[in-house]
Write a structure and sequence with these properties.
Its main location: membrane. The chain has about 80 residues and is mainly alpha-helical. It has helices spanning about 5-10, 15-45, 50-60.
């Protein structure tokens, strides 16, 4: 990111429009695709076993009215004490 604008500043045979068209757009799209390839599987494996119904059952055990704001602790430990 530093050397190409510096070359343009010192008179290299490259315009700002050509730099944006050939370099920045390609790197922008490549970063989006690369992030999706890394992020989507990571989110899937992280949240793959998440079930909202378990959280609702946990809320019912804690009690409280439906309108009251509350903090819900989701216990992933399935042991019965």
């Amino acid at each position: 990111m530093f050397s190409v604008p510096l070359g343009i500043l010192f008179g290299a045979d490259l315009s700002v429009a050509a730099y944006i068209r050939k370099s920045l757009i390609a790197s922008y799209l490549g970063n989006i695709v690369g992030a999706l390839i890394v992020a989507l599987p990571a989110v899937y494996f992280y949240l793959g076993d998440y079930h909202f119904t378990d959280m609702e059952a946990n809320e019912m055990e804690l009690g409280g009215s439906e309108d009251a704001p509350r903090m819900v602790v989701y216990d992933t430990d399935k042991r019965s004490d």
